[in-house]
Specification:
mainly alpha; 2 helices; two-stranded parallel ribbon
């Protein structure tokens, strides 16, 4: 169903990885978060809730610890439900 997007996603990931490698010594943080969920109507704090996802991005921006992470943690292609 979404197999053809894999090429674009891998290109984006590699581009971000190269930016991170080049810019981190200069103190510039470049990060990537792979979403393994479909964003849905605001819920009650579920992983699909846009507010929860926005908080995850804000935390990544403010902490600047890890340049790449999947969201939610532990998601794999086999666990993604459409």
């Amino acid at each position: 169903m979404v197999g053809n997007i894999g090429v674009a996603m891998s290109g984006l990931r590699n581009y971000v990885a190269n930016l991170h490698t080049e810019l981190s010594p200069k103190g510039i943080f470049v990060g990537h978060r792979s979403l393994g969920v479909l964003i849905k109507e605001p819920g009650v704090g579920t992983v699909n809730d846009p507010d929860v996802i926005a908080n995850m991005w804000y935390q990544a921006y403010t902490e600047k610890k890890v340049w790449e992470e999947e969201y939610p943690k532990g998601v794999t292609p086999e666990t993604i439900v459409f």
